[in-house]
Structures are given as C-alpha cells and as structure tokens.
Here is the input.
Amino acid sequence: MKVKSLKLMLLSVFLLFGFNIGARAAEPLKMAWIYFGTPGDAGWTFAHDTGVKMVQKEFGSKIETSIVENVPESADSERVMRELASKGNQIIFATSFGYMEHTLKAAKSFPKVKFYHNTGFKSAPNVHIYNSRMYEPAYLAGIIAGHMSKSNVLGYVASFPIPEVVRNINAYTMGARSVNPKITTKVVWISSWYDPSKERQAAETLIGQGADCLMQNTDSSATLQAAADKGVYAFGWNSDMSTIAPKAHLASVTQVWGPYYVKVTKAALEGKAFTDNVWGGMKEGMNGLESINDKIPDSVKKEVEAKKAQIVSGKFKVFSGPLKAQDGSIKIAAGATFTDKDIDSIKFYVEGVDGQLPK
Here is the structure.
C-alpha cells in the first residue's frame, strides 16, 4: 500500500508540474503600443490601430495587447514605456517620431525588451525602426492634383519642418509639375501633428491664397472638411478618408501597418526576433493611394496606375534627376538618384514650392 501511495503521490506531483509547464508555455506574448492621439483622429493613429486590430485577429489568445493613447512626445512617453516594460511587455511599439530619444532611453534600461520606433532614424541593439515611403503615393496624388487644379495653385498643411514632411511636400509638388509645369505649392506650417482647429485655419488660409487642391501632413480630417466647406478639392492622409467628404475627396494617401505588425508578432512567437530596420513603400504594401474619386478622368487614373507600376518595379524613383531646388540650383543631376540617406535628410524645397522653409 505504501508503494502504491508513493506512486500516486509522484504521479500527482508530475501531473501538477506538467500542467504548470504547459500553463507557462501557453502564456501569451505581451505586446504594447503607445499612441500620440486616438484612433478617432481618422488619420495617423487610426492607421496604426487598424494594424493592431489585424494582429489581434490573426493571433487571438496567443498574444496580449495593451494600448496607451494620448501620450505626448515628451519625457512622459519614456515613463509610459518604462511602465509597460515593467509589466512584462516583451515588445513595445512607439508610434510617433517625437518618441525617438525617449525610446532609446527606456530601451537602455530594459535590454531584453524589443522596442520598435516608427519614423525615427536612430536605432540600438533592442530598438528597431520602421517607416513608410509616403512620398511615393504623395507623388501620385500630385499627378492627380496637377490635372484637377484650375488655379494652378496647390496647398499643403504641414506639421513640422523635418525631412519626413519636407520630402512629402516636394514629392506632391514634383508629381503635379510633371503633368502641369505651371503648378506652384503654398505651405502653411502649424507646428503640431494633430490640432484640428489649426489644421482647419491653415487650410482656409491656403484656400484664401488661391489653392484649390489641398494636401496635408497632419493627423486629422480637418483639411479635407475645410476643402469640402469651401468647394475645393483635398486628399485624405494616413487613412482612407473618402467617406468624410466624398465630393471634395480626390484620393487618400494611406499608411498600411498591419502586415508589418503581423510579421514582427509571428517572428516573436516563433522565437525569432525581427530586428530589421524597415523603410517600405508601395512595393512592400506599406502604403498606397486609395479610393480615387470617380470624377477624375479615366486617362488620369491610367496615368497614375502606370506611374505606380514604374515605382513598384523600380523603373522610376521619385527623387531622381534632373531635379532643381527652389532657388534653381541642381540638387540631382540627370540620370542620378538620391540615396535613402539623402532622402531621409532633405532640408530644401524643390522648384515650384512657394515661401521659405522654416529654420
């Protein structure tokens, strides 16, 4: 009886121990995202949140996700990241340019946590960068604007004078001037990523200056709504905004983060950390030009599709020569192209952009 009891006890211990191992093995991968705004912005944060939802649907109970909204681009973001890391999150996505330095500081204190910073240019052993070549679909939007503008004046509501924004202004202008050399682009800077009131004021200022096709590098739909109210055209930015103002909306330049988030998650679940710094474009499916308005002539749509095919195939590079700066100097010689490093450090306006670039 004693032998039998001992066997039963050992079996119970083994089963209990085995179940505990199984429970530990089944623990979900903990992942967190910090947002500058909220998904209700219909733009930047909405695009990231759409990507998170794709991950949640793809992996279900295998992952546990946390989201912190309205995190300012200040030391407070470092505090939030430290808290998330302390709570056991193995992966943290910092989804705004201004989080860069704070991400690096937090990552240094948590070397076993993987940090992924969106749109930055500094990395570390456990800090990896992911970005989207938004200047590619911005160029295509410019082609549409060049055909649709009656005043030959485009408007651009801009956030901060950093290369990420300046190159998009340039690409939009270059695309438009490729089909209509008379085009000029006026720019209003608002020193904010998300401020619907300032965005609207900037859009109205541009319309008052004669702009009839507006683009933005800000996060709300205020520019598009202002265009609709004033009877001019505009583009959606970051997400598909076609339902917000259908008559004014020409197309939307969109960010597509879901596939990237899925790739990072899948690698982590398989025990293979995804450490590549990624700067993807239309070829990689990380952005696009969506919901082109039916009022745009078919000939223009075909022209846009043809140029998109050239970009995807690599036959056409947006920043290729000959390219002149605003002052007429040659920035890219005929037959030459900018490197990624060049593109990521653009601090000049191209020919056709009005006004001075803020210091």
Q: What stands out?
A: Residues 13-24 have pLDDT under 50 and may be disordered.
